Task: structure prediction
Amino acid sequence: MDNKLSEFGSMVFGDDAMKERLPKETYLALKETIREGKDLDLNIANAVAHAMKQWAIELGATHYTHWFQPLTGITAEKHDSFLSPTSNGKMILAFSGKELVKGEPDASSFPSGGLRVTFEARGYTAWDPTSYAFVKESILCIPTAFCSYSGAALDKKTPLLRSMEVIEAQALRILKLFGHDDVNTVKTTVGPEQEYFLIDRELYKKRKDLFYTGRTLIGARAPKGQELDDHYFGNLKPRVSAYMRELNEALWKLGIYAKTEHNEVAPSQHELAPVFTTTNIACDHNQLTMEIMKKVAENQGLACLLHEKPFAGVNGSGKHNNWSISTDTGVNLLEPGESPKDNIQFLLFLTAIIKAVDEYQDLLRVSVASSGNDNRLGGDEAPPAIVSMFLGEELTQILDDIANERKNVGYIKRSMELGVHVLPDFPKDATDRNRTSPLAFTGNKFEFRMLGSSFSVSSPNTILNTIVAKELKEFADELEGAKDFSEALKKLIKKTYKQHSRIIFNGNNYTQEWIDEAHRRGLSNYPSTVDAIPSYIAQKNIDLFEQFNVLSSEELHSRHDILFETYEKSINIEALTLTDMIRKQIIPSATKYMGLLSRDIKESSTYVDAIYLESSIKNLNKIASLIEDLHINVSLLEKYTVETKAKDNSIARSMDFYELVLPKMGDVRVVCDTLELLMPSELWPIPTYGELMYSL
Ligand code: ADP
Ligand code: MG
Result:
């Protein structure tokens, strides 16, 4: 165990390594830079670079890279060797402060949404000293931000860092009003729970759809799905345990502690939950986690599927973004304490969040929009596309009482009667579970459940931080001028809650009644990605981001454009893959089966054959007509795809992919899945749902 303990974070140039290896003044200066967000002195950078290099080389590193998060949503690296030639022709291992602080990768192959025309290929990476460097596969990785020559953010980290500063500044103002002069910094914290599927790698490689698009585009349901709920928290299969063990160890060395790992609802679906940390580190860690999950799977002869909906008919995968706000004095500002009704400071922060979510529903929605997630949101096991929040009975009651000036009777905590006498009764949680809510208060944090499993948590948190900062600013502006602070406070909570309580919904979000009710309440509903994307450039949202300097209008337009581009490209790949599978695999196999059937029919002569004959002919006719249907539908699919591709702008193309191509893919699938059920197993050319989902 001691050995294991000492391995925790052994691949990270974290606080311990810095303290041990840096001269004391350098260490203190660096800490100050990190804490106060100051610019870094080149002398300090040189000293840090030297120590970091020594440390990395001892761990076997030969190269270094600025590790960054372009707008593709995944991470990018450009490796440089530590080796430098000297004037006398020898080689030395060198790494300077300049190389640590700034890099110049060729930026032309990353999407910029028009922010950087390709001939001006230069982009800069800049060290983010608030996130620790680490060694991965003999490479020293330095977390960096990525921006254009003119300083526009070309990545997901820069706006996130900006948003963290913005919410910190406003939260500090509020805390001052409550007399907390001892608080110096406020950070948002995140713990993203990650869902995923594990399947056998050999089977995975036989499915072009999984390989190219991450999800199955055809496949009849297995006889057994998730209806028995016997997978959830069930025993882990040996191959899965082995996978989790290797994954845990790899993450452990990188300082990522994954707390719980269990089976999820769908067969072969699992979940990993890390211990929460500061938002930008949590974001870096989640990106790393996803990368390592895939690599370890490969090592173990498995494939880790991070797509939001690998299989139709069983649950998809999400990422639950647990979010809170903490002070450097160790206080979680979303902790209601023993008596929430008397905790006015908590209620003020809570009200700010309610207002933020109500006013910027559209932004939260677009932060989770992607073609993959469209297959999941609004399904009967994922939150709907309508944003609302769950507070639970107690908190809702308290706020209702304040709003209606009812004498607050308090809320009597009920004991759970377990009916088993050996077990003590325990008080019911302040919030009972609501697994259907898009944004649920879970005791001392909010759980934003709409994120897709493959998402970077960066944009959703950039948005959460910024919208809450905006409300905190409004509150601080109002309260700082108040004559009677505690009166003003009550009035503010009352007024705000009255205006925005429509966003609170504690019931079942999966029902049609809620959709109707949400419509009556005037909540926005953007069922698909193409509906949601324009919110990025709605004037009220541009105003918000510009007011706080989190994203400029130009940067927002670039994100808007990239979302449309990514959307149309993804559906295009899906349509091409499906066409290819139907033409090259499904139709030829079905045709071969037709040949076998007709040979049997022709050669039949005995009495037994005669009985068999009738069903064979029926079967033959059915197969023939399904093949015919497949031909027709796949030709139409191809036609629509070609026509859509020919449209002259990305929005028009995305619209047609959504309205014409996707439904046609659905038609093709229906025919193909019907055909699959009529075919003998040995002639079906690709692994079936049953084989994929129960392969371990
Ligand atoms: P639950 O039972 O509500 O799911 P857990 O303690 O299992 O709560 O935590 C679920 C996830 O929430 C974990 O990844 C955890 O790190 C994260 N989490 C817990 N507290 C916080 C917090 N204050 N801020 C952000 N994330 C948190
Ligand atoms: Mg949870």
